[in-house]
User: Fold this.
Amino acid sequence: MEALILVDIQNDFLPGGALAVANGDAVVPVANQLQPHFDLIVATQDFHPKNHLSFAANHSGKQIGDIIQLNGLDQVLWPNHCVQGSAGAEFASDLQMEKVAEVFPKGTNPKIDSYSGFFDNGHRKATGLGDYLKEHGVNRVFVVGLATDYCVKFTALDAKKLGFDTTVIPEATRAVNLQPQDFEKAINEMAAAGVKIISLKDF
Assistant:
């Protein structure tokens, strides 16, 4: 059984959003195009409380992009984004959600960030996504969405660690690219971990 995981295709990561990913809106039609090929589709949703400690605004004297220690982990400080109840946390309006069986919120604990759709960044608490997929007999997952170098990468790496045959379609992702080569580095890191990287034309 194969499942499609739609990672954080939310307004704040699209052009004009609080943490806009360049050309992030380009993933929406590709995600829609892929959906008819899957019997099970799930989505992850960045869903932060206002006081989340990954927000630069919640640290006096700190700037967006600074790295701090948070809960024993390196933490990049981000602009306020995907705040619970905000329009920015909502899914892209053009994203087809009718076939999405379940949405898994992440980043809800103000004291630790959650890039992966499966766990927080310290692997201290699971979102329930892994158990859900296994309960539905899923053995292969395809990971698409935003952003390649953060939430897509960590979701794919955790899927692989959990024993799922894991595939990423780069054309269905876009990167934050805090550094110019972050997209390529993320693809290479996933491939080195055994994640399959395939082109949309080869799907």
About this structure: The longest strand covers residues 165-174. The chain has one domain: 2-50+90-202. Strands lie at 2-7, 40-46, 67-70, 73-76, 100-106, 140-146, 165-174, 196-197.
